[in-house]
Amino acid sequence: MDVSQAEDYFRRYYDRLIREVLNGRAHLKLWERLENYRATDYLDELNQAPHFFHFTTKANLEDALLTLSRILDRHEDSLSIWKFLNFAEQNREIFSTQAFHRRMQQKPNYDEYWAESHKPITNNEINEDRQKLAKLEHVISNIKKWRDKVIDHMDRDVITKNKVISKEYPLKLKQLQEVIDTLFQILNRYSAAFESSTFAERFISEDDVQFVIDCIRFYTEEHRRQIETLIKQTRDKG
Q: What would the mean pLDDT of 109-133 be, rounded to a whole number?
Protein backbone atom coordinates (compact mmCIF):
# COMPACT_ATOMS: atom_id res chain seq x y z
CA MET A 1 0.00 0.00 0.00
CA ASP A 2 1.52 3.34 -1.06
CA VAL A 3 1.36 6.48 1.10
CA SER A 4 -1.53 8.16 -0.75
CA GLN A 5 -3.61 4.99 -0.53
CA ALA A 6 -2.81 4.61 3.17
CA GLU A 7 -3.85 8.20 3.79
CA ASP A 8 -7.14 7.62 1.98
CA TYR A 9 -7.74 4.46 4.00
CA PHE A 10 -7.05 6.30 7.23
CA ARG A 11 -9.61 8.99 6.41
CA ARG A 12 -12.20 6.33 5.64
CA TYR A 13 -11.42 4.23 8.74
CA TYR A 14 -11.32 7.19 11.08
CA ASP A 15 -14.49 8.81 9.71
CA ARG A 16 -16.53 5.62 10.07
CA LEU A 17 -15.24 4.70 13.52
CA ILE A 18 -15.54 8.17 15.04
CA ARG A 19 -19.12 8.46 13.78
CA GLU A 20 -19.92 5.07 15.26
CA VAL A 21 -18.56 6.25 18.61
CA LEU A 22 -20.59 9.47 18.34
CA ASN A 23 -23.72 7.45 17.63
CA GLY A 24 -23.01 5.09 20.50
CA ARG A 25 -22.56 7.99 22.89
CA ALA A 26 -25.77 9.68 21.64
CA HIS A 27 -27.81 6.51 22.20
CA LEU A 28 -26.31 6.05 25.66
CA LYS A 29 -27.05 9.66 26.62
CA LEU A 30 -30.64 9.38 25.41
CA TRP A 31 -31.08 6.18 27.41
CA GLU A 32 -29.60 7.86 30.48
CA ARG A 33 -31.84 10.90 30.09
CA LEU A 34 -35.01 8.82 29.67
CA GLU A 35 -34.11 6.65 32.66
CA ASN A 36 -33.51 9.74 34.77
CA TYR A 37 -36.93 11.11 33.83
CA ARG A 38 -38.49 8.08 35.51
CA ALA A 39 -36.81 9.04 38.77
CA THR A 40 -37.92 12.69 38.60
CA ASP A 41 -41.18 14.60 38.40
CA TYR A 42 -41.46 13.85 34.66
CA LEU A 43 -43.06 10.45 35.20
CA ASP A 44 -46.51 11.86 34.37
CA GLU A 45 -45.20 13.03 30.99
CA LEU A 46 -43.72 9.61 30.21
CA ASN A 47 -47.04 8.01 31.12
CA GLN A 48 -48.80 10.00 28.41
CA ALA A 49 -47.21 7.56 25.93
CA PRO A 50 -45.89 4.68 28.09
CA HIS A 51 -45.38 2.16 25.29
CA PHE A 52 -43.52 4.66 23.13
CA PHE A 53 -41.16 5.74 25.90
CA HIS A 54 -40.64 2.18 27.14
CA PHE A 55 -39.59 0.91 23.72
CA THR A 56 -37.61 4.07 22.94
CA THR A 57 -35.64 3.72 26.16
CA LYS A 58 -34.99 0.03 25.48
CA ALA A 59 -34.01 0.70 21.86
CA ASN A 60 -31.47 3.36 22.81
CA LEU A 61 -29.71 1.06 25.27
CA GLU A 62 -29.61 -1.79 22.78
CA ASP A 63 -28.38 0.48 19.98
CA ALA A 64 -25.64 1.82 22.26
CA LEU A 65 -24.47 -1.72 23.05
CA LEU A 66 -24.73 -2.88 19.44
CA THR A 67 -22.74 0.13 18.25
CA LEU A 68 -20.00 -0.48 20.80
CA SER A 69 -20.00 -4.16 19.82
CA ARG A 70 -19.34 -3.24 16.20
CA ILE A 71 -16.46 -0.96 17.14
CA LEU A 72 -14.95 -3.57 19.47
CA ASP A 73 -15.64 -6.61 17.26
CA ARG A 74 -12.74 -9.01 16.82
CA HIS A 75 -14.04 -10.72 13.66
CA GLU A 76 -11.34 -10.88 11.01
CA ASP A 77 -13.49 -9.08 8.41
CA SER A 78 -14.69 -6.27 10.65
CA LEU A 79 -13.43 -2.71 10.74
CA SER A 80 -12.84 -2.39 14.48
CA ILE A 81 -10.70 -0.34 16.81
CA TRP A 82 -8.28 -3.28 16.91
CA LYS A 83 -7.92 -3.29 13.11
CA PHE A 84 -7.54 0.49 13.20
CA LEU A 85 -4.58 0.22 15.58
CA ASN A 86 -3.06 -2.54 13.44
CA PHE A 87 -3.39 -0.30 10.41
CA ALA A 88 -1.74 2.60 12.25
CA GLU A 89 1.13 0.33 13.28
CA GLN A 90 1.68 -0.85 9.72
CA ASN A 91 1.49 2.69 8.29
CA ARG A 92 3.20 4.83 10.90
CA GLU A 93 4.84 6.96 8.21
CA ILE A 94 1.54 8.77 7.49
CA PHE A 95 1.62 10.11 11.06
CA SER A 96 5.19 11.42 10.82
CA THR A 97 5.89 15.14 11.13
CA GLN A 98 7.18 15.19 7.56
CA ALA A 99 3.95 13.68 6.19
CA PHE A 100 1.89 15.99 8.41
CA HIS A 101 3.78 19.04 7.11
CA ARG A 102 3.27 17.95 3.50
CA ARG A 103 -0.48 17.54 3.91
CA MET A 104 -1.02 20.68 5.97
CA GLN A 105 0.85 22.88 3.48
CA GLN A 106 -2.08 22.36 1.15
CA LYS A 107 -4.48 23.99 3.62
CA PRO A 108 -5.15 27.74 3.72
CA ASN A 109 -3.62 29.71 6.60
CA TYR A 110 -1.18 26.94 7.43
CA ASP A 111 1.34 28.01 10.04
CA GLU A 112 4.79 26.40 10.34
CA TYR A 113 4.23 26.29 14.09
CA TRP A 114 1.79 23.43 13.54
CA ALA A 115 4.62 21.22 12.30
CA GLU A 116 6.91 22.38 15.11
CA SER A 117 4.35 21.34 17.74
CA HIS A 118 3.33 18.16 15.93
CA LYS A 119 3.48 14.88 17.85
CA PRO A 120 3.99 11.87 15.56
CA ILE A 121 2.57 8.43 16.28
CA THR A 122 5.13 5.86 17.36
CA ASN A 123 4.90 2.30 18.60
CA ASN A 124 4.79 3.68 22.14
CA GLU A 125 1.49 5.48 21.48
CA ILE A 126 0.00 2.47 19.72
CA ASN A 127 0.96 0.11 22.54
CA GLU A 128 -0.35 2.59 25.08
CA ASP A 129 -3.72 2.63 23.33
CA ARG A 130 -3.84 -1.16 23.23
CA GLN A 131 -3.15 -1.21 26.97
CA LYS A 132 -6.02 1.23 27.57
CA LEU A 133 -8.36 -1.18 25.84
CA ALA A 134 -6.88 -4.17 27.65
CA LYS A 135 -7.78 -2.55 30.99
CA LEU A 136 -11.40 -2.44 29.84
CA GLU A 137 -11.47 -6.09 28.72
CA HIS A 138 -13.97 -7.16 31.39
CA VAL A 139 -16.46 -4.47 30.33
CA ILE A 140 -15.85 -5.18 26.64
CA SER A 141 -16.48 -8.89 27.27
CA ASN A 142 -19.78 -8.14 29.01
CA ILE A 143 -20.88 -5.90 26.14
CA LYS A 144 -20.29 -8.82 23.78
CA LYS A 145 -22.25 -11.15 26.08
CA TRP A 146 -25.24 -8.79 26.00
CA ARG A 147 -25.07 -8.71 22.21
CA ASP A 148 -24.70 -12.46 21.80
CA LYS A 149 -27.16 -13.62 24.44
CA VAL A 150 -29.93 -11.01 24.40
CA ILE A 151 -29.83 -8.42 21.62
CA ASP A 152 -28.74 -10.37 18.54
CA HIS A 153 -29.82 -13.84 19.66
CA MET A 154 -32.22 -15.53 22.06
CA ASP A 155 -29.80 -17.52 24.15
CA ARG A 156 -31.27 -20.85 25.27
CA ASP A 157 -29.68 -20.82 28.72
CA VAL A 158 -30.84 -17.28 29.43
CA ILE A 159 -34.41 -18.27 28.62
CA THR A 160 -34.67 -21.82 29.98
CA LYS A 161 -32.64 -21.25 33.13
CA ASN A 162 -34.19 -17.84 33.89
CA LYS A 163 -30.84 -16.13 33.93
CA VAL A 164 -30.85 -12.38 34.50
CA ILE A 165 -28.39 -10.89 32.04
CA SER A 166 -27.84 -7.74 34.11
CA LYS A 167 -26.68 -9.92 37.03
CA GLU A 168 -24.71 -12.46 34.99
CA TYR A 169 -22.90 -9.81 32.97
CA PRO A 170 -23.34 -6.47 34.77
CA LEU A 171 -22.79 -3.23 32.90
CA LYS A 172 -22.83 0.12 34.64
CA LEU A 173 -23.36 3.46 32.95
CA LYS A 174 -20.00 4.66 34.26
CA GLN A 175 -18.26 1.66 32.65
CA LEU A 176 -19.91 2.20 29.27
CA GLN A 177 -19.04 5.87 29.38
CA GLU A 178 -15.42 4.99 30.15
CA VAL A 179 -15.29 2.76 27.06
CA ILE A 180 -16.71 5.57 24.91
CA ASP A 181 -14.31 8.15 26.38
CA THR A 182 -11.38 5.83 25.73
CA LEU A 183 -12.42 5.29 22.12
CA PHE A 184 -12.68 9.04 21.60
CA GLN A 185 -9.24 9.60 23.10
CA ILE A 186 -7.67 6.92 20.93
CA LEU A 187 -9.26 7.96 17.65
CA ASN A 188 -8.69 11.67 18.17
CA ARG A 189 -5.02 11.09 18.98
CA TYR A 190 -4.47 9.72 15.47
CA SER A 191 -6.59 12.38 13.79
CA ALA A 192 -4.62 15.10 15.57
CA ALA A 193 -1.35 13.54 14.39
CA PHE A 194 -2.73 13.12 10.87
CA GLU A 195 -4.18 16.58 10.23
CA SER A 196 -4.49 18.44 13.53
CA SER A 197 -8.22 17.81 13.90
CA THR A 198 -10.47 16.14 16.45
CA PHE A 199 -14.18 15.51 16.89
CA ALA A 200 -16.19 17.05 19.72
CA GLU A 201 -18.02 14.40 21.71
CA ARG A 202 -21.38 16.18 21.98
CA PHE A 203 -24.01 16.39 19.29
CA ILE A 204 -25.31 19.92 18.80
CA SER A 205 -28.91 18.97 19.67
CA GLU A 206 -28.33 15.91 21.82
CA ASP A 207 -30.62 17.28 24.57
CA ASP A 208 -33.60 17.84 22.27
CA VAL A 209 -35.54 15.10 24.08
CA GLN A 210 -36.04 17.69 26.83
CA PHE A 211 -38.00 19.79 24.33
CA VAL A 212 -40.30 16.83 23.66
CA ILE A 213 -40.90 16.26 27.37
CA ASP A 214 -41.55 19.97 27.94
CA CYS A 215 -44.05 20.02 25.08
CA ILE A 216 -45.92 17.08 26.62
CA ARG A 217 -45.94 18.84 29.97
CA PHE A 218 -47.27 22.03 28.39
CA TYR A 219 -49.97 20.08 26.51
CA THR A 220 -51.15 18.16 29.58
CA GLU A 221 -51.20 21.28 31.77
CA GLU A 222 -53.09 23.25 29.13
CA HIS A 223 -55.53 20.38 28.64
CA ARG A 224 -56.07 20.17 32.38
CA ARG A 225 -56.62 23.94 32.57
CA GLN A 226 -59.20 23.80 29.78
CA ILE A 227 -61.10 21.01 31.52
CA GLU A 228 -61.07 22.91 34.82
CA THR A 229 -62.31 26.02 33.04
CA LEU A 230 -65.09 24.05 31.36
CA ILE A 231 -66.14 22.50 34.66
CA LYS A 232 -66.19 25.93 36.32
CA GLN A 233 -68.28 27.38 33.50
CA THR A 234 -70.74 24.49 33.74
CA ARG A 235 -71.09 24.96 37.50
CA ASP A 236 -71.59 28.72 37.10
CA LYS A 237 -74.39 28.11 34.61
CA GLY A 238 -76.02 25.64 36.96
A: 87
